[in-house]
Each structure stands twice: as structure tokens, then as C-alpha cells.
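> @MW can you paste both from yesterday?
MW: sure, first one:
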Amino acid sequence: MYDRIMKLLYVPFAMVVGAISSSVAIKLWRRTWRTLARDDRLPKPLDRDRGWVEIIIASAVRGMIFGVVRAVFRRGGAKAFAHVTATWPGRQSAKGK
């Protein structure tokens, strides 16, 4: 019963962690693109003056940044939650059984 309650409490905590990770990822993406392209305008797929290669590279870099930042924040948030509540919010590993 305690585990179920703790996992329910994790949902709003995870939402806050997700919002923070998105904010960090956006800032990191902007800084990275400005450094790589020396351009303050972030490329969008429908920008007429951008080429295919630029759009594809920008999308790949953006996806990598967002994926890594999200994973770091989700894992860190889960570890912090488990430290405070002694309940792991995700699935239990079959390895330990």
C-alpha cells in the first residue's frame, strides 16, 4: 500500500522535473546552435531559406540534446525520490529477484 501511495506522489514530482528538464534543454539547445552555426535564429523545418542538410543536422542535434537532458533529469529525479521515500518510482529489476 505504501509503495502505491509513493508512486502516486511521484507523478506530480516527475511533472516538475520534466518541466525543469525542458527548460534546461531549450537553453542548452539555443546556446549550442549559436555556437555551431554562429546564427541566433534557430532553424525550423518550414524556414524557406534553410537547406535540407541544415534542417536535418539541427534536428538531430536538438533531439540528442533533449534526449540526454531528459534522461539525466528523469534518472536524477527518480534517485532523489527513492532517497527521500525509500521507494523506487519505476519498475523493479527482475535481476534482483
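MW: second:
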Amino acid sequence: MIWAAGPCCPAAHILCSSKEGACAMTTILETEGLTKKFGGLVAVHDVSLGIREGDIFGLIGPNGAGKTTFLNVIDGIYKPDAGTVSFNGQDITRLSSERICRKGIARTFQISRPFPKMSVLENVLVAAVFGNPVAVKDPQGWAAEVLEFVELPISKDTPAESLNTVQLKRLDLARALASNPQLLLLDESAAGLTPPESRELIGLIRRIRDRGITIFMVEHVMRVIMEVCDRIAVLYYGEKIAEGTADEIAKDEKVADAYLGEKYILA
């Protein structure tokens, strides 16, 4: 399987962890003063952050804090009213979603919207063919391999319209990975999962990172994000109020007041 290899990862299957090697100081994604308005509503206000290559970076906050809007600006669905987005040192602020995908950023969505009449394999095949920055020699084999990696426990010939919520989330993840990204954006992938399913997701996220893919995840399930993330940022009414490790966020009084309700106890 060929996975994304960023500037610090010249070969496939090499982990660029923030805890080892030169990748520790490499910033793969950076936003500066990012702002997005909808009429008089400021959904994201002056948000700056940097994500290091090889990290799993989390974004949390209450409903309506601007988290998904922030992802939508990064991947080109929305254009910001102010600020910039840089990926691998290149300004991608005004690029289309298609060009951003081909540069190496893929994402999942809160609500999966596959092609319902197409099979699971065909859905992933579309991403393999049209979302990949380079031509895949065997797109069908590649799509099947990605499906195996995400451990979707159904036949690849199953129509997407027959999948349940959990299976749709795995299919959405497979479609994102089929484009061979360097950076993967996850939008509430743990929503609706049982505790055992959440633990399986944690393992899968770590395996994805171990393949050399940086992860930026929006999540409400604290047991997932606190366990898996290297760093976490917190949005509140569109503004970043905190950033740090899981332990630092759990002890932050501003975060407790705005979101967690009380100081979060890490197991």
C-alpha cells in the first residue's frame, strides 16, 4: 500500500511522529488570523494555529463554536473573510476543494453522503481515480486495499444505501484515504459510536498516523480526543481560547468554564 509521504517522509510507511526525528519541527498546516462571517454572524474569528507533521491534532468546543466551519474554510468549501491557510508552506486560501484535495488534504464529514446506488468498492474507486494527486496504476486494487485497512466488515459489492451509520463512517474514511492524503481532516468520526466502537476507532486513527498521515480531528467524544491527540485547541464562539496537550486542556479553567463544565479528569 502506498501512503502519503510528506517532506519529512520520503518513503511510504514511515511515521513522522512529533516525538521523534526531524519532523518534530515541521508544520504541515498553518492558519493565520482566519475569519469567516455569515452576514452579521462571525462563525470563526481570528484563529491562528499550526499543526506539526505526524501529529494528531484535535479541535473541540461546544455546538456552534465554529469547528466545522473552520474545517470547511481549510478545505475550500468556504472562502475566509480574512486570514490565510498554508499547507506545506504554500498558500491554499483561495484554492478550490478539488485542488486542495489533489495537493494532499482529504476529509470526512459529520453526515456521510456516498453514492447510494453504487457499491462500497465503487464509492472508494471514485476517490482513488479522481481524488488522487497522481495516477494509480491499479485503482480497483488500491480501493480494495483501503477498504481492508479500515476494516469495513461487509462485502465490497454491497450497495452504499444499505449501510448503517457506523459502516457509512468507515466508508467515508476509506474514501478519504483513497486519495492518498498527507493531511486527513476528521469531522466527528466518533459520533454515535458505542464505547467498544470508539476504542476501535482510536486504534484505527493511530494506524493511519503510523502510515505517515497527519490528522486534524474535530470531536465531541472526550474519551477519544483526550486519549489519541498530541495537541488540542478549543474554540468558543468562533475564537480560540486555549491550545495545549490533553493534560493542559483538561486542567484549563477557561476550557472548564466554556465547555467541559468542570476540570476533566484524565484516566
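> thanks! Residues 113-180 form one domain.
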